[in-house]
Amino acid sequence: xxxxxxxxxxxxxxxxxxxxxxxxxxxxxxxxxGRSGSGKTTLLNCLALLERPTEGKISHxxxxxxxxxxxxxxxxxxDNVAIxxxxxxxxxxxxxxxxxxxxxxxxxVFADRHRVVLSRVGMAGAENERIYHLSGGEQQRVALAxxxxxxxxxxxxxxxxxxxxxxxxxxxxxxxxxxNSAGAAVIVATHNRHVRAIADVEYxxxxxxxxxxx
Length: 214
Description:
Elements: E1 2-11, E2 14-24, E3 29-33, H1 40-47, E4 55-60, E5 63-64, H2 70-80, E6 81-84, H3 96-102, H4 107-120, H5 136-150, E7 154-158, H6 166-181, E8 185-189, H7 193-197, E9 201-204, E10 211-212
Parallel strand pairs: 3-8, 3-9, 6-7, 7-8
Antiparallel strand pairs: 1-2, 1-4, 2-10, 4-5
Helix pairs in contact: 3-5, 4-5
């Protein structure tokens, strides 16, 4: 269970949002919507412990993650979170297989499943391709394969359909549903109406106070 209570985030002197409460249970899909600049990516970064909120509390399975020290934050992220960022965070001069290995907890998981997840995202046989040789959509599918390979209890997806055509968008929707069925809490920042249609709950950041903090 991910629980957010009274979360507030400042960007310099600008208030992105405040009073944000949300709850996402295992096996639920939540979408986060809002205009460009409303802080959707920032919220995912806070949930992944990559940024700290200005105020408020985030807890996961009764652990207050906003109170963790730096080393414990890294350990929590490693053990509990799979994230697909807009920037993808792939190592461009490494191969697809090497990037997937970075997402694995053990070599055995990589050996057992990396070809399966590559096939699932339509990238079968691409293990030895360098990331910089791939198109933007192919790179996004590699990042999605990393999420599948990690099989974390908390999955954070930042605009996962943005660089994809219709057939691959359909595949992403299916993957989100599979992660959901496997028991993950899936939180997606998106503008896509098809992703929003499969969500159990939706949070609109435009409904929260934004502007100057005085």
